[in-house]
Amino acid sequence: NELMQFIADNEAVIRSRKLMPDIVFPETSVFAMADPLLLSRMLGNLLNNVVKYAEHSFRITLSAEQGDTVITFSNPIHEGRQIDAERLFDRTYRADKARSGSGAGLGLYIVKLLAEKQNAQVFAYTENGELFIGVKFKKA
Questions:
Q1: Of 29, 55, 108, 140, which is most buried with the most CB atoms under 10 A?
Q2: 90: which residues sit within 8 A by CB, 6+ positions away?
C-alpha cells in the first residue's frame, strides 16, 4: 500500500519529466517491516535519482525473494555513460561529473543510512545497459 500511494502521490513529478513508468507488482501481497516515514523518504530519494537521470522510461519493481521484500528502481543508462555502481551510495558520489545541478549528491547516501536504521540493505548494479538501484528488507 505504501508503494502504491507513493507512486500516486508522485504522478505529477513523473509526468513533468515526460517519463513512462513501468510498475511491476507481484500477484500476491508483499509486506515489509519498515517505518512509513523513513520508507517514504527513501522512495522519494530513489525516485529523485530516476527523475534526474532517466530519459524516457523507468521501472519500479516490488518483489519477494526468499521471504525478503525488494523494491527496485531501474532505468536505461545513457550511451557512453560510465557508472561505478559500487560507489553510488557513497557520500557525495555523483555518477555524472558534468552535472552542474545544485544537488550535493547525498540522496542515495541518505537511502543507505535510512535502510540501515531499518535493518535493510541497499544495492546497485548495471546489467545490459540498465541501472538497478534498490532496497531489500529482511524477512521479519
A1: 108
A2: 109
How many residues does the structure list for the chain?
140
Q: What are the backbone angles phi and psi of residue 118, rounded to the nearest 5°? A: -110, 20
Cell triple for 109? 547516501
For the chain, give percent helix, strand, coil, nearest 5. Answer: 35, 30, 40
Instruction: Confirm if 109 and 91 have CB atoms less than 8 A apart.
Output: yes
Task: Give Cβ neighbours of residue 51 (< 8 Å, ≥ 6 apart).
Answer: 13, 14, 17, 19
Strand partners, 100: none
Question: What is the structure's pLDDT at 79?
Answer: 75
Q: Which residues, other chains included, contact 1 with Cβ-Cβ below 8 Å and sequence gap of 6+?
A: none
